[in-house]
Amino acid sequence: MSAILMHRRTNRQSHVLVFAGTGEGPALVAALGHAGRGVSVSVVTESAAEAYRLADIRDLHVGSFRSAEDLGSHCLTHAVDAVVDATHPFALTISAQLHQMCIAHALPLVRFERPGWTGDRASLLSEVHALSHQPLQGRRLLLALGARHLAAATQAGRAAGAIVKARVLPTPAAIRLAGAAGLSGEDLAVLRPLSGIRPGAVEAAVCRRWAITDVLCRQSGGAADALWSALAESVGFHLWKLKRPSPPETVPIVQSPQELLACLDGLSV
Q1: Nearest-angstrom CA–CA distance, 230 and 200
Q2: Per-residue model confidence (pLDDT) at position 9
Q3: What's the start-to-end Cα distance of the chain, in Å?
Q4: Does the pLDDT of residue 250 top 80, yes or no?
Q5: Each residue of 23-41: pLDDT tens digit?
Q6: What is the DSSP-derived secondary structure letter of residue 120?
Q7: Does the pLDDT of residue 193 top 50, yes or no?
Q8: What's residue 12's pLDDT?
Q9: Exposed/middle/buried for 1, CB within 10 Å: 0-12, 13-18, 19+?
Q10: Which strands, in side-by-side order, build the sheet including 253-254?
Q11: Roughly what angle, to the nearest 10 degrees, separates helices 68-77 and 92-104?
C-alpha cells in the first residue's frame, strides 16, 4: 500500500462501504453512522436504493459492477477503508468479486450473515441436485426458491418421484423461467412472499390446497427462511433447505450490527 494512501487513511474519519442486499442493510448503515464512521452504500436496483435516500451517508451507488477491477476503482475513488458484504447469501458473483478486490487492495472485508433457522422438520441439502436422491416417491413437493433454480429443482424433484409444484414472484422473468422448467397452470402459484394482512397466510393456504408434503427453500436467513420454518411446524410438511454458501475462511462473519462494530474495532477500522 502506498505511503500516500496510508497517510490519507490515518488522518481522517474511517470510511466503510456497505454492499447491501438484504433487509438488514439500513440497520447496519445506521449503526455504523451512530458509531462515528463515514458510510457509503452500494445496491443493485433503484427500489433497493429507496431505503437509503434519506440516510446520512457519503455516497449511494446504484447498479452492478462489471468486475473486481471496477470495484477496486470505486473504492479507491471514494477512499474506502473497509468493506461490508451484506448481499444476499446466494449472490455468489458479487461476493467473490468483493473478496478478490479486497485482497488486491489490502482492504478489510467483513461478511454479514443473518442467523439461520432450524427445526425438527428441516433438512439441509448441499446442492439442488441432491434432492433427486431423497425418498420423495409420490410426495407433493413445493419449490419456494429463486426462479433461477427452478429448472434444476424441478428435474431433481421429479427424478426423486415427487409431484412438483412451485411458487414464483409476480414478475415476467420468474414466470418465463417457471414455464421453461415445465411448470405452469395448476402447478404454479404466482405471489409475493409475506404479502397480505397476515404474512404467511397465503403460503399456508397454497400448501393446504395442494396437500403439500415437502417444501424446498433456500437457507437464506431472514423473513422468508423464518416463514417456511414456522409453516413446516404449523402445516406439517417436511422442509428441505438449500444450504447457503460459506464465505472464505479468512473473511470474518458477523450476525448483528453490534458484532459488526466490534469486528471493525478489532480490525482497527
Answers
A1: 9
A2: 44
A3: 16
A4: yes
A5: 899 999 999 999 999 999 9
A6: T
A7: yes
A8: 54
A9: exposed
A10: 59-62, 38-43, 15-20, 82-86, 109-112, 253-254
A11: 60
**Residue owning grid cell 478489532:** 266
Give the residues across from 107 on adjacent strands: none
Question: What distance in Å separates the CA atoms of residue 231 and residue 217, rounded to the nearest whole number?
Answer: 12
Looking at the chain, the whole-number percentage of residues with pLDDT higher than 90 is 75
H/E stretch holding 135: none
Q: Label residue 60 exposed, middle or buried (CB < 10 Å: 0-12, 13-18, 19+).
A: middle
| Secondary structure class of 254 (helix, strand, coil) | strand
Please give the pLDDT value at position 16: 98
- 168 grid coordinates: 414464483
Please tell me whether residue 230 adopts helix, strand or coil conformation.
helix
Residue 139 has pLDDT above 70, yes or no: yes
User: For residues 113 and 260, what is the distance between their CA atoms, to the nearest angstrom?
Assistant: 10
Burial of 105 (0-12, 13-18, 19+ CB in 10 A): middle
According to the model, what pLDDT value does residue 120 have?
A: 72
Residue among 23, 51, 27, 55 nearest 40 (CA): 55
Residue 7 has pLDDT above 70, yes or no: no
- The three-state secondary structure class of 260 is helix
Alpha-helix residue ranges (DSSP H) falling in 22-83:
25-34, 46-49, 68-77
The stretch 250-258 carries a mean pLDDT of 95
Angstrom CA distances, 245 to 20, 93, 96, 111, 213, stand at 17, 12, 11, 12, 26
Which amino acid is located at 170 in the chain? P
Q: Which domains does the chain have, with CATH numbers?
A: 3-113+246-266 (3.40.50.720), 122-242 (3.40.50.1980)
Question: pLDDT digits over 59-83, tens only?
Answer: 999 999 999 999 999 999 999 999 9
